Amino acid sequence: MITPSEKRAVTSVPLHPMLADRWSPRGFDREYALSDDELTALLESARWAPSAGNSQPWRLIPGRRGDAAFNLILGSLDDGNQLWAQYASALIVMATQVMDDTGRQRRWAWYDAGQAAADLTMQAGALGLVVHQMGGFDVSVVRESFSLPSSLEPVAVMAVGRWDPTADLPDYLEERERAPRTRLPLTEIVLG
Ligand SMILES: Cc1cc2nc3c(=O)[nH]c(=O)nc-3n(C[C@H](O)[C@H](O)[C@H](O)COP(=O)(O)O)c2cc1C
Q: How far apart are alpha carbons 70 and 67 in whole angstroms?
């Protein structure tokens, strides 16, 4: 069984525990159902994220395990993601408006959506939940399933739920689940 301390970020100075302890598990508690308030809190946290000119380009499509939206989102995921994401309590598509109503490009649309995703992830952590984001999904399936206009670009799918450190995973995923978390050194990402 994996313990949270095994997955904690190794940092040069202490970070807030919510940041140091956040990680992307694949072991989800397949029994856990999100309450209405939990799901609303996640969506509210994204709603209140900062954005360029307060443009709020993010659009979220939530599905809860067992409902029609969840099944459509699940069906858009790569097989390797479906394997474990099917047990998440919710799957949320994060999409962003890459064009405004006048057809002008929104230069910060993707950046803003990432910020909303980060805030949703932190809110999930505050509720004792975990988030695993995925880029491994078929954009055209999401687009068609939810009749999205071309101005709206699906960016990522977020699997949300309660971590189950004892979840049954195939060996290759169990190995990834156990692997230490790594990052580039500060000296490489801080320039100048
Ligand atoms: C935009 C984005 C796309 C990702 N796509 C996938 C994916 O398709 N499948 C997967 O298992 N993990 C995916 N991840 C999770 C990353 O692999 C993970 O965040 C990274 O390895 C760092 O690990 P940590 O989140 O546990 O610190 C994605 C993460 C992000 C932010």
A: 5
Predicted confidence (pLDDT) per residue in 95-128, tens digit: 999 999 899 999 999 999 999 999 999 999 999 9
Confidence (pLDDT) at 108: 98
Helix (H) or strand (E) segment spanning residue 91: strand 90-97
CA–CA separation, 131 vs 186, rounded Å?
25
147-183 per-position pLDDT tens digit: 999 999 999 999 999 999 999 999 999 999 999 999 9
Helices marked H in the chain: 4-7, 17-20, 36-47, 68-76, 79-85, 109-126, 139-145, 171-178, 186-189
Q: For residue 112, what are the CA distances in angstroms to 26, 116, 121, 184?
A: 26, 6, 14, 24
Q: In a mutational test of the pocket of ligand 1, which residue from 73, 133, 138, 176 has the highest number of ligand atoms less than 8 Å from its CB? A: 133
